[in-house]
Each structure stands twice: as structure tokens, then as C-alpha cells.
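Dear U.,

Please find below the material for section 3 of the report. The protein was modelled together with adenosine-5'-triphosphate; I have listed the sequence and SMILES used, followed by the predicted complex structure.
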Amino acid sequence: MNTNTVQIPNILPIVPIKNKVLFPGTALPLQIGRKDTAQLMQRIYKSVDNKDTKYFVGCVPVKPQHTNTSSKKVTDETPNQSTPTSELHEYGCAARIVRLERPVGGIGGRFFVVVEGIARIHIDQYIFGRPYLEAEVTVYPEQVMRNDDQELQDLAISLKSTGRELFIILQDLKLPVQMLTQLQKFIDGASPGSLADLLISTIEPPYEEKLKVLDAHDLKSRMTAAIDILTRQIHMLKITQKIHSTVEGKLDKKHKEFYLRQQLNAIKEELGERDDTSPEEDDVADLTRRLQEAGLTPDADKAAQRELKRLKRMHPTQAEYQIVRTYLEWLSEIPWSKGTSDTLDIDKARSQLEEDHYGLETVKKRILEFLAVLKLKDDMKGPILCLLGPPGVGKTSLGKSIASALGRKFHRISLGGVRDEAEIRGHRRTYLGAMPGLIAQGLRRVGVNNPVFLLDEIDKVGHLSLHGDPSAALLEVLDPEQNSTFNDHYLNVPLDLSKVLFIATANQIDPISPPLLDRMELIRISGYTFEEKLHIAKRHLLPKQIASHGLKPGYVKISDEALLKIATGYTREAGVRNLEREIAGVCRAKAVEYANANDNEKTNTYCSEITIDDIVTILGVEKFDDDIAERMTKPGVVTGLAWTASGSGGILFIEATQMPGKGNLQLTGKLGEVIKESAQISISWVRAHSFQLGITTARTESTFFSQRDVHIHFPSGAVAKDGPSAGVALITALVSLFAHKCVPPTTAMTGEITLRGQVLPVGGVKEKIIAAHRAGINKVILPSRNRKDVDGDVPVNVKENIEIVYADNVYDVLQAAFDGEKIWMEPSSIVGVESRL
Ligand SMILES: Nc1ncnc2c1ncn2[C@@H]1O[C@H](COP(=O)(O)OP(=O)(O)OP(=O)(O)O)[C@@H](O)[C@H]1O
């Protein structure tokens, strides 16, 4: 349409439009919501039959409202409340109404109008007074381009070529063919001013930019603004197109959303509007930074880079994304090159060990030797220390003391119940819910590569089974030659454990597999005597418990006798764990008492002293009474010494009785094969020597045993018992029974016997003697060949209180058991053969 030929009045009814801009030469559909404009439309609608009348309006955009134009969804192109004229833009477009439809919804419905832009207008002045808005306007006829204006010519060429470029892109975006043909026609034939208007209304740039083009009634500034906007939009479209082409066709709904976001980010970035990165990108960037800071080994770095690359290609909602991300997190959190520096001073270490533990002299000495060598050698390629002893003797806390003496971080790995090799080595990543093993987890927790790892309860670790062999995995961990390249299945890169100081603890030696045992140096810690327990309680346990119950040091004062009472009457153990628990019970009671007094403001009535009587009141009736004192001296009852499965020693009673019968031997008390055999040997030996022992009156008497049944019982019937060391006690019990001689209950014995009556050495002597001491035994009969154990290990104060008698054969045992009385005839005085063995 040639705008120059159309007569536009200079007073026009005004139609405010929101978020849209009408340009000359373009059409715009509108819904009329504003009341006054609707009245205008009503009027036009009524007079529409008058074919000669041309209905012109001035479409004036509302000024951009920065706070809500972008966020509010516009459903109505004309503002539905009377917009103040101050909010209307000063330029607009004179338009002809080409279509007008009445509201379908009756009163309150909206007119639908299609307007066609004719010329730019400037609002000179608003005229009020009519039911609708009117304004005096200046109409800008389309400027004719002069051929001699080179600058304008150049701009026109540039605009056309930009238009063509846009066309090519739009073609690629598969817009409707009709629209494309029209556009091409326009590019080829339209005047530069109209082309600028058309292109800007086609590509939908931001509202403000459109307004800028509307304001440009001068051709030069319009073309310049249009070229500028078009160039930027083309650039953006190219990026969109690039992203589009790579993802097109392959995506499901979620992928599409992800890539649309990517497109949006790319567009924003191009516009310089990008304010923040997406959370996924943040995540990957953060992970990359953490990996860079982790000081990875070359192998780990290679794996990390490979996985990072995969992660970047993945969509965050993919299940695999989290797996790769967790793996990378693990890699970034393993202390590959971070370590603490050792502050080993032997004197300091000695005082640290002394401070933390009472007694344990040989253990402390060996630990100090170990630390000294460590300091001189400056590497960990030494034997692995294994602290072996019953529960509660301070193995774990010794490990802690070593760590603090070295100034290293400490971590305890509990191996009790570890049945699956993967718990040590980790699961392969293909496994659902895969995790690194306990070693890698420990390293991550401490955050340094040279901690002290305490492998607690190494004897409880499982052996070869369906789930692999955890103890074989430990072999690699503990071997200084191999552990610099330990392979955790999850991490799947070599992990250097050569700087870690491993210390193991165990209760028993037997369950530890021989190859594992071979790699460790055993340091035995036996149970404590009551004397030692008293000192430990006084120096360590009581202050610790007082503090942990929120009391001050002077608030609980327990006399030595009372402490000893707790140890003897309420605990029966090799270690001090139960003792600590009972002391905690006392502290609790005192804490309640003090808190009560404090609440009633009677703290002066609070008594911190605790006597033996108080102990009974607080802890209740004694749990363990004295086994020895209670037992009556009776023929057939003998005290033996045992070594329990937990590694602590104890006393055990053997009761034998006889009754008329047929020479049967009955054994009860949950006995194992070996102990049953010992009983057989004992009865055979006693039968063979019955005349010599004065049991039978004639050497050839055979009816004595065939008319009697013998029953031997080991009380504490629920506790399984086995081993050969009860042999001497069994023979003594039988001799005592048949000879009607009593063995004092304060005499205990241990030793294996042979059929010839020889006494063989047994294990756990130190623990047995300490247990005997605890139980109030004052004479212990031991095999002679165990003398070295007593000399080396048993504490001096125990040896001072217990008489130890060494025996080579049964006669030595019987003599010591019956208080030096020889109840048998010397073999030389007996005519005949004693034994053929
Ligand atoms: N000689 C000691 N001096 C001071 N405290 C001790 C001593 N022995 C043990 N304790 C204390 O006894 C408690 C139990 O010790 P710890 O946990 O080290 O026992 P453990 O030998 O490792 O037992 P388990 O074999 O059951 O693990 C700790 O509070 C520890 O401080």
C-alpha cells in the first residue's frame, strides 16, 4: 500500500496496545479489552455499513514496564483498564481496521480486530471528552530514497543482504513455505523502509528494540537500527540452529528440555545476559576444580579425565550420571598426596604411652623400639604390629596412643564379621550400589595418606568362601612390597598404602590365617591382676568417668578398698571394660545425688566419699562371689586352670564321683573330644596304678573298677570346654576320689598327661596364673617345661603371692596336690611290672 496516497486525518481515535508493535505495512490481530476502546469499536461496528467511510485509528504501544513485561504472560493485547496517557509511547502507527468481529460472550466480551499499519505517527496531544481516547497526531509519510544519497543506498544494500541471510536461516528452520515466499518477494521488491519494518516484525526482537525501530521515522536511522538488530538475531539463530542440528531427532522429552535449556543459555550468553550457570554445569565445574586440587596420581588423573568427559556428555537425569559423579567425587576425596608430617620424639612417645596406660611394660618397650626404628628408617616397610590379648586390655587404646605419639591421624577399621572380600577391596563399579572398600573409605575419612590404621579384631575376619577371601585381600594391604599399588576394585586405580602405619589387634591367634600371621609381629597382652586393675581404675578409668558424667575431680572419691571390691565382686574378666562400666555406674549414682543436692541448694550435704557399703548400695548385690571360699574341701573335687576362647584365663572345677555300676565312665559339662580323651587316659592310668596308690588291696584285684561307675563333671555346663590341659587335674580328681584324700581348693593345676604319667607343657600359662591369682589361688602346679613362661611373663607381685610347683610326672603333681603327702608306694617296693608303656 502506498501510504503517501492515503489521506489520514490528523485527529485519530487511539487504541493502546500492549507488548506488541504495529509497523506500517504489517497487520496485527488485537483483542479489545479496554472499556473506552471497546466503546470506540462498538461505534465503528454500528456504522460499518457505510462503505465509503474509512476507519482509521492510531495504534499506540504502552511504554515498556521493566518489572513485569517479561515475566507476565500477556493475554490481552490492549490494556483492560484505562491506561493513563503518560504510560503510552509517544510514537505509534496509524492503522486501518480491516476486520472487526463482535464479542461472542455478550456484555463483557471482547472485540476481535485486525488492523493494518499505514504510517508512523507522533502523538502531539491527547484529546479527552469523548467516551474513547483521541489524539492530535503528526503523520510521517514514507520517506522516498534519493538515488544520489550514497549512504542510504549502501545501507539499503546492506539491509537487503542481511534480509537474505535471515531468509536462508529461516528456510533451514523449516518455516511455512507460504510465509517464506512472501518474505522473499518482499526482500526483492520492497522499499528499504518497509523492508526494515517487515523484517523487524517478522523476527520478534525484544519489545524495546521494536519500539526503537518504530520511533525511527527517518529512513537512515531506521535502517541502521534494523541492520543492527537483525545482525544480532541472525547470530543467535545460527547458534540455535547449530545446537538444534546436533540434537534433532534423537531426543526424548527430557533430553529435549535439557537441550532447549542449553539453547537458551547459549542465546543468553550471546546477548551478554547470562547471569548464572545451570546447576549441572556448576556441579561439573566444581567437580573439575576439586579434582584439580586433589593432587591425583597420573593413573588417577587419567581415570578422572576420562570419566569427566563422559559426565559432561551425559544428561543429569540419566542413572549413569550419578554413578560417574559419585565415582569422581570419590577420586577427588581420596588423599592422593596430602599427608601430615611426623612429629616423632621417642621421649614424648614414651611419656604418652605411660600417661595413657598403666603397666604393660614389655608392650610399651616393644612399641618404642618399633617407633625408634620407624624414625631412623623413615619408611613403613617393617613388620606389622599385632596386639594380641583378651578383650578390654587396652589394645585399641594403645593403637590410639601410637598415633598421637607420632602426630598422625588415627582410624579404626573393625574387621569383626567381615565375610566379603569386597568389603576390603570395594565392589566393582558394574555392581549396583558399588562402594570402595574399608581401606579407601578410611583414607577418605582421615583425609591424609599417612594415618595410623588399626585393623581391629583381625582374627574375626572371614576366610575363603563364596564371597571371596577377605583375609587374602588383607595380605595385599599388609605386605609392604605390594601395598604401594593396592587395587581397590571400585576406584580401579592403584592406591598407595605404603605410607600408612597398620597396627592389628586380635583376641586369639588360632583363627588368623598363617600367611597373614607371617606378616605380623605379635605382641601379647595378657589380662590384668586385681592389683593392676586397681591402679588402672584409680589413674585412668575413674578420672575418665568422673569427667564424662559432668562431675569435677573432687566430687567422687572412692577408697582403694572400695575400688578393689568393684573389681573383685562385680567383674570377672581379663580386661577392664566391665570395671569401667561399674565405675560409670557409681559415677552416675553420684551425679544424681549431686544434681539433687544442687537443685535443692544443699550442696554442702553432698558427700563425695564412697565406702565399700556404698558400693553394695549403688551396684547391688555382688555379682561374683569367691568360688574358692565357697567350695567345700571334698574328695574328688579339684581346681583346674583354663584358657577361655576370648584369650583370658580362668579357673575351672572338676568334680568326680563314684557309684555302684559296671565300670562305665560318664563325662558331662559340654566337653570336646580332646578333653574326653584326657579323661580316658586318666582313668586308665589310675586303674593301672590302683594298687600302688592304695586304692585296691591286691595287685591283681580286678573287681574294684568293674563294679563301679565313675562320673566326672565340669561345672558351668553351658560353656564348651576342650583341650588336653585338664589332664593332671583329672588324674588328681580320680586319685582324690578313690583314695579319699582332699585337695585344698586354693591349689590349682594345669598340664597334659600321657598314659605313662608324664606331664607335658601347655599354653596360656601367664593368663592362667593371673586368673588363678585373681581367684585367690595360692598354689599352682605346672608342667616343668612351662617354667620359662612363668619366669618371662608373669608379673612379680603375682609370683610373690602364688607358690608355683613344677611337675615332671603325675607323682610330682599328686605330691604337690596332697600337700607333700606321698600317698603311693614307691615302685621299687612293689613286686611286679608297673606299666608296659
Ligand atoms: N593399661 C591400661 N591403662 C589404662 N587404661 C586401660 C588400660 N588397659 C585398658 N584400658 C582402658 O580400657 C578400655 C578398653 O580398652 P580397649 O578398647 O583398648 O580394649 P581392647 O583390648 O581393644 O578390647 P577389644 O579386644 O574388645 O577391642 C579403654 O577405655 C582403655 O583406655
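For the text of the report, you could mention the following: The CA atoms of residues 541 and 580 lie 6 Å apart.

Regards,
Y.
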